[in-house]
Amino acid sequence: MTDPPVPYRVLDTRPETADTVTFRLAPAGRALPPFAPGQFAMLYAFGVGEAPVSVAGILPDSGLMHTVRAVGAVSRALHRLRSGDVVGVRGPFGTGWDLPLAAGDDLLVVAGGIGLAPLRPLVQAVLAAPQGYGRLNVLVGARSPDDLLYREELGGWALPYCGVTVDRAGAGWPGRVGLVTALLDQARFSPAETTAFICGPEVMIRATARELLHRGVLPQRILISLERNMHCATGHCGHCQLGPLLLCRDGPVVGYDRAEHLLTVREL
Amino acid sequence: MPSATTTRDPAPPACVLDRQGLDALVQALRARGRTVIGPTHRGGAIVLEELRSAAELPYGWGVELDGGHYRVVRREDEAAFAHSAGPQSWKNYLLPERVRQWTADRAPDGELTVRQERHPPASYAFLGVRPCDLRAIAIQDRVLLGGWHRDDAYQARRNGAFLIAVECTEPGATCFCVSMGTGPAAGPGYDIALTEVLDETGHRFLARAGTAEGAEVLAGLPQRDADAATRTAAAEAVESAAGRMGRSMPPVDLHTLMASSLEAERWDEVASRCLTCGNCTMACPTCFCTTTEDITDLTGDHAERWSRWESCYDLDFSHLPGGPVRQSGRSRYRQWLTHKLGTWWDQFGSSGCVGCGRCIVWCPVAIDITEEAHALHQEQLARRAAGEGTP
Ligand SMILES: Cc1cc2nc3c(=O)[nH]c(=O)nc-3n(C[C@H](O)[C@H](O)[C@H](O)COP(=O)(O)OP(=O)(O)OC[C@H]3O[C@@H](n4cnc5c(N)ncnc54)[C@H](O)[C@@H]3O)c2cc1C
Ligand code: SF4
Ligand code: SF4
Fold first, then answer.
1. Looking at residues A55-73, what average pLDDT do you find?
2. pLDDT digit string (tens) for A232-249?
3. What is the mean pLDDT of chain B?
4. Which of B94, B144, B325 to mutate to test the interface with A (most CBs of A within 10 A)?
């Protein structure tokens, strides 16, 4: 075991969807080293446990923003946080999105569900320095219109292309229905000079990456963020293995050139 | 420039200890405040326990080993170290089964105070570390200390451990250290290495130091200079052990064999026998996986974080909110074997298996890691012969 969690205070919370909240944290005392987009923290809900959670926002003064979907004990406890509460934070952990790799390229940011959370700080970083890149495309898929994250913010992003699609449309949804890959036809990118950043359910990641390969995007320019069980995030507990990779250390962001053959083996 | 006489050789030439000398070694280490842990015969097994004197060593006991089989047997001689790996390994001390990592207290205003567990400095001396286990310790060092993050508690226990290796002269029927390049001669990492010699000239131990502290300890013991006969007898005993390994691995690069065997049919066959009980992972001296437990006291304002050994054979090991990644027994056995022999190289730059044979002995259904590797190798050869193989 390495350093224990550092106390961070909840500044505010905001419901994102029925089962997802976004909260902002500020160090209660000592701050952790800075996080990069794509990296994650271990968030400790007092007495309940820890969960790996990506940084959804990197704030001034070492503040952090996280978006958490309630799926189990720890995430439900994080869901219940109120402003003023204190959580424990460890990190930063893992490989971030390799933005220097994408210099000059068109960018495809493809998110499924909660997968938009780790991609948000990446989009913000690119929007803050757009001259370094080609065209930025953001493609978002969600289960239903009610499950869309950062709705208002999405609308405010000035992008060459921002597409949203849902699996099941409710009444009054004017937008698209279907797989996120269907949005690729509208996106503006030259495949051979494109870097893609994908996060979402593994089936969605695989389908998107396959489609991009098919269209001529290089496998090492397809960066995906993977999820596995993690207990320590320091490379010592053994839970996050995906074949040769320890995903807390060699991931969560991995190039598709390294991951493709691993993702095709069932139950690896 | 320092003159040659001021640099002291940390490794003096070999010396010879007799049985009294061995006991003097135990007493000297105890006098230095160390808890001496070594093998002793208890409850039908050779177990690791605190030794108060060398008389507690299993003089005259050997072991009879096979897949799923372990029996302590009386020997005709009085050898102390004529047994191979037992049910425990040194990880029981260096990486204990359950460790408190930190405690947290919550004040009425929500303020959180987290305290890292300060482990009292353990000061062990391990007597009778077999060469394979010496390598196993080095492998766990790589995992827990060699990465970006260091396990400080492990580091403290490790720093405090004085290692006395005993070379193997009596390999078990399940041993294959020669295949793994870990024995029967002791590799680096020991403070003192012993080789047991038992012949018509008597029962004695050829001893040499690997560190300055080892040399200092040896220098204080009743001993005599190593004679040629003892040196030769020791070398021959170790060499003879190398020729008497009970098991062997196929003579191929196991790392690539594993990487090209992910879809082998053999996994179905072994899965039909494997109970996914996890015994092999508990007995293995390199298996390091842990899980965490978070507990609170009755007030609800004091919480603790513990880590405890966990096995990749547990269904919960690969738990994700959507269900475990490795549902089938097939995938869990595959995870274990391909990690040990294959992906360990990718992750930590070495094999995860040292050839101690514990997993074979303590498997209730006698699954044998060497037999499985041979079967995968045969299957690969057959695939290649059929022209559809992986390169
Ligand atoms: C790198 C990374 C980044 C992530 N980023 C985000 C994010 O930004 N937002 C988000 O919402 N989610 C994110 N996740 C997913 C999130 O970590 C999980 O949803 C969360 O860990 C679930 O924990 P839980 O306690 O709520 O659920 P559970 O499913 O109850 O799991 C909690 C923990 O307890 C253990 N556990 C549960 N049940 C058992 C059992 N029966 N036996 C033993 N152990 C058990 C599991 O091993 C797990 O680690 C991320 C995951 C990873 C790996
Ligand atoms: S895999 Fe088996 S033989 Fe190899 S080190 Fe572990 S217990 Fe020993
Ligand atoms: S190989 Fe043997 S010891 Fe290991 S999990 Fe299977 S049945 Fe248990």
1. 96
2. 999 999 999 999 999 999
3. 93
4. B325
Q: Which CATH number fits domain A100-264: 3.40.50.10860, 3.30.70.670, 3.40.50.80, 3.40.50.1220?
A: 3.40.50.80
The phi, psi pair for B309, rounded to 5°, reads -50, 140
- Residues in A closer than 8 angstroms to B152, CB to CB, are 1-2
Set of chain A residues whose Cβ sits within 8 Å of the Cβ of B328:
267
- Per DSSP, chain A holds a count of helices (H) and strands (E) of 5, 16
* pLDDT tens digits, one per residue of A82-116: 999 999 999 999 999 999 999 999 999 999 999 99
Query: Which ligand ends up closest to the CA of B279?
Result: 3
pLDDT at A127: 93
Give span(s): CATH 2.40.30.10, chain A: 6-93
Q: Is A59 helix (H, G, I), strand (E, B) or coil?
A: coil
Distance CA A253, CA B390 (A): 28
A-B Cβ pairs (cutoff 8 Å, strict): 138
ipTM score assigned to the predicted complex: 0.93
Contacts with A234 from chain B: Cβ below 8 Å: 147-149, 151
Give the whole-angstrom CA distance, residue A96 versus residue A92: 10
Residue B388, pLDDT above cutoff 90: no
Sign of the CA dihedral A223, A225, A231, A237? negative
- DSSP annotation of B51 reads -
Whole-structure pTM value? 0.93
CA of B117 to the centre of ligand 1 (A): 25
